[in-house]
Specification:
With 476 residues, this protein is of the alpha/beta class. It has three domains: 120 residues, 2-Layer Sandwich (Nucleotidyltransferase, domain 5); 168 residues, 2-Layer Sandwich (Nucleotidyltransferase, domain 5), CATH 3.30.420; 132 residues, Rossmann fold. Helices cover 28% and strands 29% of the residues. It contains 14 helices and 24 strands. The strands form six sheets. A seven-stranded mixed β-sheet has the order 16-24-23-17-20-21-22, covered by helices on one side. Strands 1, 2, 3, 4, 7 and 8 form a six-stranded mixed β-sheet that branches. A hairpin with a 4-residue loop joins strand 9 and strand 10. Helix 12 crosses helix 14. The longest helix is centred in the middle third of the chain and has 18 residues.
Length: 476
């Protein structure tokens, strides 16, 4: 049975704010005897907003009232009312400091946003969102290749790469089109790290200088070179690590990239030549796009067209699937209800081998950190490969060994399993952790990587819990 719903995706970023409305046709493709799996069978973007510079009260605080006015005006232009929407997503991206007033922004939008998926994405999660929006994960899966995406925005470049559709790494650098701003042919803003990069190559530049196109093009060439270093097309120099926003974490060098997509505002200037004044946007975005396009190292790998460029982190929609857990589960009732918990899905390959499972958790849990502090996350497994008592004990040991960063927080350890092993696994975890950590382990639920879940208060005399799975839908 098909169902058609309307949805909104709102992206409030460091540099830009935008939204889209989508019409989705959804269908449960599972049989009567399996876990419900809601799939999108048709997807149509019916309205794209203008793209606005995100209004700020200061360098570290978003002007929530001005953002609301932008969103309100776009609702009016589209002819769509909040009551027409069944679902949606609000994604707040950008510098960690700005996340401090994210709640006030969301509160301001509450009458228009409703009960939507909400993600305040740090640099690593933003890398994943933009890569999925650009379609790099799908290209990787379809072509059985290692494909990355470089999302070059105003303040940062977010990078993520996938092997056969599985996320293998992320990083984020202070390279972007608005790190040098130009007004009336003069430089009005200059990011300190870019000034230092230029000086290391005997290029002197400072605020107030005339915007010399040749000099700024040379600086953009240096920025393009640093991006090539970031994806291991060139060996990193001594300065390279100073450009990273996430404590200098480099992208893993293995597996080797075979293809790349570009997204973000600068990507429009890579895929399409922008005529007219190179400073028409008040920054060096056009020059940076040209520099990346011509830089020789990027010719070593295939460049794929992106599904989206400047709109890559605008989520098309969030479809909500309501279900109840299995009846043999383990949970800390004092921790429920909980809402909008991001899901980390372990692949089948990783789940089968405890060592791979442990490494997958250790490698990927940092994506859900904010300024080095772990946020809440739910770990999703099929539970197909550990059904005997001894196998479940091994599974519990691997989870504990891999999820140390979660265990060190005040948040509960949350596990979402498809097959009916939650009670036994939860008991094993509670025993091994000496009941010093709250554990929520539920089954009968399918959740994918990048989904969000709500877990409600127990019902049916405490035997089951209601679960809402929210799937972000990108326009890829």
């Amino acid at each position: 049975m098909h169902e058609t719903i309307l949805s909104v995706g709102i992206d409030i970023g460091t540099s830009t704010t935008q939204l889209i409305f989508s019409r989705l046709t959804i269908e449960n493709l599972a049989t009567s005897y399996t876990v419900p799996r809601i799939s999108i069978v048709k997807k149509e973007v019916i309205y794209r907003s203008d793209i606005y510079f995100t209004p700020l009260l200061s360098q570290t605080e978003i002007d929530a009232a001005a953002v609301k006015e932008i969103i309100r005006s776009e609702y009016q232009k589209s002819g769509i009312r909040p009551g027409d929407l069944q679902t949606g997503a609000v994604i707040i991206t950008g510098e960690t400091a700005r996340k401090q007033n994210a709640n006030s922004v969301l509160s301001t939008l509450s009458d228009m946003a409703g009960d939507f998926v909400v993600a305040t994405a740090g640099p690593d999660l933003e890398s994943v969102l933009s890569a999925k929006g650009a379609g790099a994960d799908k290209i990787s899966q379809d072509n059985r290749e290692v494909v990355g995406n470089i999302d070059i925005g105003g303040g940062t470049s977010n990078i993520a790469f996938f092997q056969k559709g599985i996320l293998r790494g992320t990083c984020c650098l202070d390279i972007g089109g608005r790190l040098i701003k130009v007004e009336n042919n003069r430089i009005t803003y200059l990011f300190p790290s870019i000034q230092k990069l230029a000086a290391l190559h005997q290029i002197q530049i400072q605020v107030g200088d005339t915007a010399d196109q040749n000099k700024l093009s040379r600086i953009c060439d240096l920025m393009a070179q640093q991006l090539a270093m970031a994806i291991h097309l060139e060996e990193p120099d001594a300065f390279h690590k100073e450009l990273y926003t996430n404590q200098g974490n480099l992208l893993p060098s293995s597996p080797t990239l075979q293809g790349i997509t570009y997204s973000g505002g600068v990507a429009d200037c890579i895929y399409t030549e922008k005529p007219g004044d190179v400073f028409q946007f008040g920054d060096i975005g056009i020059l940076l796009g040209r520099a990346v396009k011509r830089y020789p190292a990027f010719s070593k790998i295939r460049v794929y067209p992106a599904a989206e460029t400047i709109r890559a982190t605008v989520v098309g929609a969030g479809t909500h699937t309501t279900n109840v857990s299995g009846s043999t589960i383990s949970y800390a009732s004092s921790r429920l209800p909980i809402k909008n918990i991001p899901v980390l899905k372990i692949s089948a390959e990783e789940e089968q081998e405890p060592g791979l499972l442990q490494k997958a958790l250790q490698d990927r849990l940092p994506i859900y950190e904010t300024d080095g502090a772990m946020e809440q996350v739910a770990i999703a497994l099929t539970g197909e490969y550990h059904t005997s008592f001894s196998q479940i004990q091994d599974l519990a040991k691997a989870i504990i060994a891999g999820a140390g960063s979660v265990l060190a927080t005040s948040y509960p350890l949350i596990l979402v399993i498809e097959n009916d092993i939650a009670k036994v696994l939860g008991n094993a975890l509670n025993y091994m952790l000496e009941r010093k950590k709250d554990v929520i382990c539920i089954d009968g639920i399918h959740a994918g990587d990048g989904d969000y879940i709500d877990i409600g208060e127990p019902v049916a005399a405490g035997r089951v819990v209601p679960v809402v799975t929210k799937t972000l839908i990108f326009n890829s």
